[in-house]
Amino acid sequence: MNDDSSHPIEVTVEAEAWQTTVTDPIGLIRDTAGRALAQAAPPHLRDAHVSVVLTDDARIQVLNRDWRGKDKPTDVLSFPAYDPDIPLPPGMQAELGDIVVALETVLRDARADDRPVDHHLRHMIVHGILHLLGMDHETGEADAQAMEALEARILSGFGVANPYAEAVR
After folding, report:
1. SS3 category, 128
2. What are the residues facing 79 on neighbouring strands?
3. What Å distances lie between residue 91 and 1, 45, 73, 86, 168, CA to CA?
4. Distance (Å, rounded) from C-alpha 135 to C-alpha 152?
5. Which of 3, 78, 104, 142 fits a 20 to 30 Å CA distance from 20?
6. Which pTM value belongs to this model?
7. What is the pLDDT of residues 93-150, one digit of tens each?
């Protein structure tokens, strides 16, 4: 099921079980991605186009294998389509990239951390947006700490507990 592709946050629901697992997943994703961009993106990217695909473990495993060489499912993948440091011509909207989220892995992770599924989905969307904006937690401890702190700050605006706090894990 596809939503309105004229919206800057386009959501495609490939795995229909998302519709019964999360109340209004499209609205939740648009709200989360929009606020993450408002808080973390430079001004010229705050209205950037982002595509989010809600899929399942089987599909994300193929993407993870083909793009990252890891033949296993993962919770979220980000595919940047734009270098956030490059200025845009006036009036042009950036195509920031794509985020893909896997249902079964998100459900497993939420249960393992005793967190509501919608909170974990918000976390995955914020995490994906920050990757599209050029942040990376795998380049060093300082980068990981900066990214995690920003994620926690954005998520707190939704009433979501810091996913990196020891009490939550």
Report:
1. helix
2. 98
3. 30, 12, 38, 14, 43
4. 14
5. 78
6. 0.90
7. 888 999 999 999 999 999 999 999 999 999 999 999 999 998 876 666 787 888 899 9
